[in-house]
Amino acid sequence: xxxxxxxxxxxxxxxxxxxxxxxxxxxxxxxxxxxxxxxxxxxxxxxxxxxxxxxxxxxxxxxxxxxxxxxxxxxxxxxxxxxxxxxxxxxxxxxxxxxxxxxxxxxxxxxxxxxxxxxxxxxxxxxxxxxxxxxxxxx
Length: 139
What we know:
0% strand; 85% helix; mainly alpha
């Protein structure tokens, strides 16, 4: 093997985490990608990087699924139509009582996204913690 064996332990995990973070920042700042799209992109990259470790793969895939369903898909199907009603059409098209109802639904929907984000963070954190522990015990 060129350059010797790949070291295991916290350094490679930190290097992978730093690289993933750099890709996310670059995607958001340089390419102007929305945060959600950049998060999904970086999540997919992380999933590819840890594919060989089954337990970590399942945790990161589950994290991506929770993010995709709870944030991305939820935003497109639930939040965006309510944004149009509240902020583009507004009182010119809808009654105030209907706008209040839509606002309440929108605020309730944010709790769904908050829970989905919490699940996403727990699964991703557990995945990277599992990866780190496996690397430490392997070396």
